[in-house]
Amino acid sequence: MRDDASEETSEGEERRLLTRRLILRPPGIQDAAALAAAIDNPRVAMNLVTVPYPYRRTDAEIWIERERSVEDAPGASHIAISRNQGGLVGAGFHRPSTVWPDGFELSFWVAERFWGQGFGTEIAHAVIDDAFVRGGVMRLICAIRVTNGSARRVVEKCGFQFRDTGMVRSIATRGAVPVERFVLERRVWQSLKAWGAERVMQDFGPARIVEGSANDVDESSAA
User: Fold this and answer.
1) Is the CB of residue 120 less than 8 Å from the CB of residue 151?
2) What pLDDT score does 196 carry?
3) Tell me, what's the pLDDT at 89?
4) How far apart are CA 153 and CA 170, in angstroms?
5) What pTM, to 2 d.p., does this model score?
6) By the 8 A CB rule, do 55 and 69 touch?
7) Structural domains of the chain ordered from first start
């Protein structure tokens, strides 16, 4: 963490995204308790192959510190906060792939109490737009557990195309799990935006990047 609190706040503001119902912003140490509470749920953790289970506050703090330390690297991480009620809804991020050297991996999740309300699509769409618009990404890859039908529906609605199947190591299950890999090329995303063919753009509208004062948005603490 940086010692200069004003610098940290300013950088966080520059990375915020707004959707109809959410504020997406970089994680801060104040979010550790809320992140731990949401992910320390087997129905959430077992679908996220890079997190341990049980998931403790120290795990959240380690992840936050790591994400803050690579802010200047390619990719970005955002937690999603409810604009109306405050509180953590989920998270989404894109980072360079360790498997696909010419692509970025997309990940997203939603806390269980917000399931079935379209938040997964809203988070994914915002992160995808951020990756292609500001990140200059050419290709996004998303690996989804074969048992996670809701996540598969989200990426398909966002324009991802099925690529192949495989096995990945899951920290939560302490073993390998089968996944389906989906790919979204920049040219396909551009076509969807131009044609208006992606329904989520009608439902939620494009994410808006916010660069300004924290007073622009009334944001409650997620912790």
Assistant:
1) yes
2) 67
3) 98
4) 21
5) 0.81
6) no
7) 5-208 (3.40.630.30)
